[in-house]
Structure to design on (314 residues):
C-alpha cells in the first residue's frame, strides 16, 4: 500500500508542473499586462513610468523561465502573492472562503448519496416499476436543466412564493438547503442511473446464482455482495465530482451569493486579479488529484478483486 501511494504521489509531480506552467503561460500570453491590471484594479491611472515600475516590482522584466521558476518556488511555500483588490495575501483569502465551499460541497454530495443509492438500488430490483419510472423522470429532469435555472426556480418557489427559505448568503442550515439541492439534483440524476445499471449487471453474474443455490438470504446477497460491488463505479464518479465541487461550485455560489472559493474566483476574473486566478487553477488541480487518489484507495477496499500488487505492477 505504501509503495502504491508513493508511486501515485510521484506521478502527481508532472501533472502539477504542467498545470502550473500552462496557467503561467496562458496568463503571460494574455493581452492584459499584469502590471497594468494591478494599477487598474487599484484605481490608479496607469502611466508608462508606473507600469515599468510595477513590471520591475513583479519581476516581469525577467525571462519567462526565470519568472516561472520564481513563481513555482513561491507556490511551494504557499505564497501566491497579494490580491490586487484587497491587498491581502491570496492564501489567507482562500483559506477564509474555502470552509464555505467545503460545507456546500459535502452537504450536496451527502444529499446526492442519500437519495441516489436507495433510488438506484430499488430501480434495479423493481425494473420498469413505479420507482424505476420515477427515477427515470428525475434523471431526465436533473440532467437536462441548467444549474443556474434550477437555482432561480427554487428561489422563486421556496423563497419568494412560499417564503420558507432564505434567498442568499451563509448563516444557518436553512441557507444551505437551496444551494445544496441545486448542486445535488444533477448528481442524483447521474448516480441513481449509474447504480441501477451496475446493480443489474451484478444480478446477472454467476456468483449471485451460486449464492442463491447455497440458500443465502436475499437481503445478505443484495446488501453484502451485490450493492458493495455495484457501488464501485458510483464511487469513482463521487471522487471526480468531489474534486469539482471543492474546486469551486462557481455557478451556484454566484446565484445564491454563497461566500465560497468559486465566487471568489469569478470576482478575480472580472477584476483581472491574476494571483488569485493562479492560486485557483493550482488548487483545483491538486484537489482533483487528491480526490482521485482517495477514491482509488477506497476502490481497493470495497472490491476484493483489485489487489495492491496488481496496481503497483501496472
Amino acid at each position: 500500500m505504501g509503495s502504491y501511494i508513493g508511486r501515485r504521489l510521484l506521478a502527481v509531480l508532472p501533472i502539477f508542473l504542467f498545470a502550473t506552467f500552462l496557467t503561467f503561460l496562458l496568463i503571460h500570453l494574455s493581452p492584459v499586462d499584469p502590471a497594468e491590471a494591478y494599477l487598474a484594479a487599484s484605481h490608479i491611472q496607469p502611466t508608462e513610468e508606473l507600469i515599468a515600475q510595477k513590471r520591475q516590482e513583479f519581476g516581469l522584466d525577467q525571462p519567462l523561465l526565470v519568472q516561472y521558476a520564481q513563481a513555482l518556488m513561491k507556490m511551494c511555500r504557499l505564497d501566491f502573492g497579494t490580491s490586487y483588490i484587497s491587498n491581502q495575501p491570496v492564501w489567507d483569502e482562500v483559506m477564509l472562503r474555502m470552509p464555505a465551499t467545503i460545507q456546500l460541497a459535502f452537504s450536496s454530495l451527502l444529499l446526492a448519496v442519500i437519495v441516489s443509492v436507495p433510488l438506484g438500488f430499488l430501480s434495479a430490483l423493481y425494473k420498469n416499476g413505479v420507482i424505476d419510472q420515477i427515477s427515470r423522470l428525475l434523471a431526465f429532469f436533473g440532467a437536462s436543466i441548467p444549474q443556474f435555472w434550477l437555482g432561480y426556480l427554487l428561489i422563486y418557489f421556496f423563497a419568494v412564493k412560499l417564503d420558507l427559505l432564505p434567498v442568499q448568503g451563509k448563516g444557518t442550515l436553512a441557507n444551505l438547503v437551496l444551494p445544496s439541492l441545486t448542486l445535488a439534483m444533477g448528481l442524483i440524476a447521474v448516480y441513481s442511473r449509474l447504480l441501477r445499471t451496475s446493480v443489474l449487471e451484478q444480478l446477472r453474474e454467476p456468483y449471485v446464482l451460486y449464492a442463491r443455490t447455497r440458500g443465502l438470504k436475499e437481503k445478505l446477497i443484495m446488501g453484502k455482495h451485490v450493492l458493495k460491488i455495484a457501488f464501485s463505479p458510483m464511487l469513482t464518479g463521487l471522487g471526480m465530482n468531489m474534486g469539482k465541487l471543492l474546486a469551486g461550485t462557481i455557478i451556484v455560489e454566484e446565484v445564491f451569493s454563497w461566500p465560497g472559493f468559486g465566487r471568489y474566483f469569478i470576482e478575480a476574473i472580472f477584476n483581472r486579479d491574476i494571483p488569485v486566478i493562479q492560486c485557483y487553477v493550482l488548487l483545483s488541480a491538486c484537489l482533483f488529484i487528491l480526490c482521485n487518489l482517495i477514491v482509488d484507495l477506497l476502490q481497493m477496499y470495497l472490491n476484493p478483486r483489485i489487489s495492491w500488487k496488481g496496481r503497483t505492477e501496472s
